[in-house]
Q: What sequence folds into this?
């Protein structure tokens, strides 16, 4: 059976060049970068090389990149670290309703500890209105945290405009760029970003490694306490092989950024146009203008997402769904809900994400199977265009 | 999909008794697309016996499998026998459902009873098995019925 992976926003395979770069750092160059003897120096140099590679991808200085155990840790650190460091200045954070749970659940945790949080609405395309950001600012606001690219619908947020507003009010701007990294051009100076979360495994690097960009001079408390690693800001013996892999993946992402965006978005546009023309009653969610190059988030009316997902899986196709039935909590996607999409339509929503290994043959195979599966499930469904939803 | 056993997968991928009956003797609709599951079951009754049943379901794999199994279980049964079927029996016949999916069997059980209720209403009949049954009860009220560990 053919296997087609179309969930590159969930994770990506480690590229061969990345794996090759990592392998020597497990058994051969295993020295602890904090040690003083020569074999440890090799580890230290590899660590700093990787820091430079990640910094280069985002237009930062190497000493502004702090490695973490992933995007979630970076998000937790940014919110908790700033809330703590600036507690004498204020206790208000502004974020949005469509953030990743690493932000939302950290914000909820902070609310239990005396921090006020404003969760901004988004428009029907999932975009935050900078005017709403400005209106939400109070004299207690210490941080604005808004994701650069949404993970479900791929909407790109107006970070540069929001950063300008933040700085006009003397407020720090954090952005969760886990989905954006390697998929949209990022320049922290040009965009006015003070803090930014990144992850290795979304850009063909390994899992379990990420980074927080912290602009020089930004006040932030430590999150992981212990040794003096990461310029005394993040304790713990470095995940050296992982960091080397993340660095290599960042280097490749920078080299390939333009061709990656062009190729992936072309395949994505083809996929969307074929699906919407071959399958009636399909709706593309999100913005077509401000969109992650590989993202196609599509609602199929009158059927449910988990049943589609399973039938696709039986045909070797991997996708994800916004349906409640697939989640352990049985709650529908908070992102699609915030965009005002009716719940019955959310249940029938799939997210397809295209990546570097995806081919046109893959896309054609998925379209062929999707047409069959949607038809089969619609024949089973008591709701239809003729009957309506009731 | 590792989350479902082979019986559930078989009923999901090759569901039995899909469709609608012309001039059905009873129709039961339960759930709503807003909740993520909606089932319609139609029955044909002759001499107090369910001679045919058909379903249409909007929902996840276990909702479709539960509907398919439920219709299999009631065809050939008397009304009283069909009313005695519990959601637990539907789960058992399916060889088990994941804990978060038990409510799908509750929906199927409720849809069957709704179809029989409709038949009883139309024909002025009363059944002990329908005592206290409210076809319009909120789906939420049934979420905790006979859940498995």
A:
């Amino acid at each position: 059976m053919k296997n087609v992976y179309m969930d590159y926003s969930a994770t990506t395979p480690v590229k061969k060049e990345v794996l090759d770069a990592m392998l020597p750092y497990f058994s051969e160059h295993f020295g602890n970068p904090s040690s003083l003897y020569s074999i440890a120096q090799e580890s230290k140099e590899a660590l700093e090389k990787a820091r430079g590679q990640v910094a280069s991808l985002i237009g930062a200085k190497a000493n502004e990149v702090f490695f973490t155990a992933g995007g979630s840790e970076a998000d937790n650190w940014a919110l908790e670290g700033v809330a703590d460091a600036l507690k004498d200045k204020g206790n208000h954070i502004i974020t949005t309703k469509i953030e990743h749970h690493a932000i939302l659940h950290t914000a909820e945790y902070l609310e239990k500890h005396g921090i006020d949080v404003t969760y901004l609405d988004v428009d029907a395309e999932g975009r935050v209105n900078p005017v709403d950001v400005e209106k939400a600012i109070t004299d207690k606001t210490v941080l604005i945290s808004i994701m650069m690219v949404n993970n479900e619908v791929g909407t790109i947020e107006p970070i540069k405009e929001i950063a300008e507003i933040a700085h006009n009010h003397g407020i720090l701007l954090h952005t969760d760029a886990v989905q954006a990294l390697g998929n949209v051009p990022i320049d922290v100076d040009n965009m006015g970003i003070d803090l930014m979360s990144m992850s290795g495994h979304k850009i063909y690097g390994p899992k379990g490694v990420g980074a927080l960009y912290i602009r020089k001079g930004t006040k932030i408390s430590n999150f992981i306490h212990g040794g003096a690693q990461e310029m005394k800001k993040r304790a713990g013996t470095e995940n050296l092989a992982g960091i080397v892999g993340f660095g290599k993946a960042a280097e490749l992402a920078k080299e390939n950024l333009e061709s990656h965006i062009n190729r992936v978005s072309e395949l994505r546009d083809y996929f969307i146009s074929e699906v919407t023309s071959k399958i009636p009653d399909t709706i593309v969610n999100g913005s077509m203008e401000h969109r992650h190059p590989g993202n196609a988030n599509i609602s199929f009316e009158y059927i449910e997402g988990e049943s589609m997902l399973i039938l696709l899986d039986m045909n070797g196709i991997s996708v994800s769904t916004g349906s409640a039935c697939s989640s352990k909590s049985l709650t529908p996607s908070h992102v699609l809900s915030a965009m005002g999409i009716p719940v019955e339509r959310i249940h029938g929503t799939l997210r397809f994400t295209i990546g570097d290994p995806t081919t046109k043959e893959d896309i054609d195979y998925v379209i062929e199977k999707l047409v069959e599966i949607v038809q089969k499930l619609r024949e089973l469904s008591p709701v239809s265009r003729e009957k309506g939803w009731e | 999909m590792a989350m479902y056993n082979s019986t559930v997968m078989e009923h999901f991928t090759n569901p039995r008794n899909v469709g609608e009956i012309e001039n059905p003797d009873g129709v039961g609709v339960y759930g709503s697309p807003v909740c993520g599951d909606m089932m319609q079951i139609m029955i044909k009754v002759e001499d107090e016996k369910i001679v045919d049943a058909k379903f249409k379901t909007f929902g996840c794999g276990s909702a479709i499998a539960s509907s398919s199994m439920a219709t299999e279980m009631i065809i050939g049964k008397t009304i009283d026998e069909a009313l005695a079927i519990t959601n637990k029996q539907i789960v058992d016949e399916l060889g088990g459902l994941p804990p978060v999916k038990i409510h799908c069997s509750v929906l199927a059980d409720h849809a069957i009873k709704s179809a029989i209720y409709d038949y009883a209403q139309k024909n002025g009949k009363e059944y002990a098995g329908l005592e206290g049954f409210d076809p319009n009860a909120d789906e939420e009220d049934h979420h905790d019925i006979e859940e498995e560990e």
Observations:
- The CA atoms of residues 120 and 126 of chain B lie 6 Å apart.
- Residues 6-122 of chain B form a domain with the Sufe protein. Chain: A fold (CATH 3.90.1010.10).
- Chain B has one domain: 6-122.
